[in-house]
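Researcher: Structure prediction, please.
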Amino acid sequence: MIHHPSPNFGPRRSGVLPDIIVLHYTAMATAEAALKRLCLPEAEVSAHYLIGRDGTTWHLVEEDQRAWHAGAGHWGGVEDVNSRSIGIELDNTGDCPFPEPQMAALEGLLPGILGRWQIPPERVIAHSDMAPLRKIDPGLRFDWRRLARLGLSVWPSPDAASQTPDELAFRSATTRFGYAPDLAHETRLDAFRRRFRPWATGPLDALDMAAITDLAARFPVDRGPART
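Model: Predicted structure follows.
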C-alpha cells in the first residue's frame, strides 16, 4: 500500500458513515496518469484507493473522509453517494480484462473495508449502478461473479426460478434492489445487464426476470436513515 494523499476531499456531510463501496475504472492510459489527475486540485476528483494493473495500490483519501468520485446519482434512498461511500478506482480503459494481480489486490483490499465499516456485500456496487445515465464503469469486462464467490459482492442464484418478462415487475424489483425509481425501462435494463448479464441483448427476457427477482428478494436495498 502506497500512501499518496490527494487534496481533493472533505468531511462526510451530516456526520454519516460509509455504507457503500463504489467500483470504477479510470478510463486513462496508465495508473500514473490517473494518479496525477486524482491528486490535481483543479480536477476536483479523487477516490479513496487506486489499484494499478500490476496490483500496486495507492491510498489517496482516508476512509472517514468524503472523496469526490461518485458524482450525481442514487442508490436506494441515498442521493449524496460520495458522503455514504468509499470509492475504488481500477486502472483500466474499459476495453480489456482486469488483470489477475489487480483483481487479487482488490480482493485483498475489500474485506478490510467491509469489516471496518460493517458494509454488507450487496452494497459493493458499480459506478454504473448508481449513475446509469452518465457512467458505464467498471464495464462489461469486470468479473462481478468472482467477487461474489468470495463474499465480496452478490450474484443471482443459478437456481433462480424462471419468471415471465414483465416490465412493471422488473421496474419494481430493480427498485427494491437499489436502482433509482425514475429510470426509463431501457436505461434500467441496460444498467442491470451491464452488471449481471454483460453480453445479453434484446428485450427483457425470462433470465433477466429470474435474476432480478432473486436479487431483490435476497438483497433489498437499505432505505433506512443514514448511519452516524
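Model: The helical segments are 31-38, 81-84, 100-117, 127-130, 144-149, 167-177, 185-196, 206-218.
Researcher: Thanks, that helps.
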